[in-house]
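Lab manual, section 2.4: Encoding a predicted structure.

Procedure: take the sequence of the chain (247 residues), apply the prediction step described in section 2.3, and record the output as structure tokens. A sample record is shown.
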Amino acid sequence: METIILAVLIMGVAALYASVGHGGASGYLAVMSFVVLDPSLLSTTALILNILVAGIGTIQFGRAKHFSWKQAWPFVLLSIPCSFIGGILKVSSTIYFLLLAGVLLFAADRLIRGTRTPTEEQTGSPSRIVALGAGGGIGLLSGIVGVGGGIFLSPLTILMRWATTKQTAAISAFFIVVNSLAGLGGRFVRDSLEIGTIWPFLLAAAVGGAVGSTLGANKLTPNVLRQLLGIVLLIASGKLLIVAFSG
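Recorded output:
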């Protein structure tokens, strides 16, 4: 029963995140953290689901002509090695849960408050140095925690008016895929690639990701659903803080 409930929650998370070009790692970590407290298993499972869902999103947003390699590559170039390094780094359970709680709090804030998106005419590409630095920093943190980094890149891209909503979703989906792969690679190198019974979650994430990314390439995500997910992340981050300080 626990597996079924988690699978349903993961499907919902995948659909919602995929609609805005995200893989959903912060959401998966949030719902799984209620029953799983092994950092290695949490991060590995979230990254695998991330690759699946963000991969579907990359294809869907690409088909809808929203993806631009010219916009994406400056963010990705340094993020891949930095995410790999982050995956190699071994941190204590307390530090991991504190970092994860911080990521979930940030994600919750972005989901609940939302971000006003610029139009095509209001956007402009960042300098290469700024894009490389942003990608590298996000990649390192993402590799340590076990997320793809889209939850950081998307609000930054929109806030700085570097891309429109659809373009941001397309860039983020690709960014998440490559960083999640790099993060998994780092965990493999340090021999902490823990994989449990994952197939029900893969199936659920695939269905949710396909539905969400298909709708997201053509429609906006309902604000109410974003806010509800934000509340879930807030609760999960509070739980993780309790675990971190009680350990």
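Check your result against the sample. The two ends are 28 Å apart (CA to CA).
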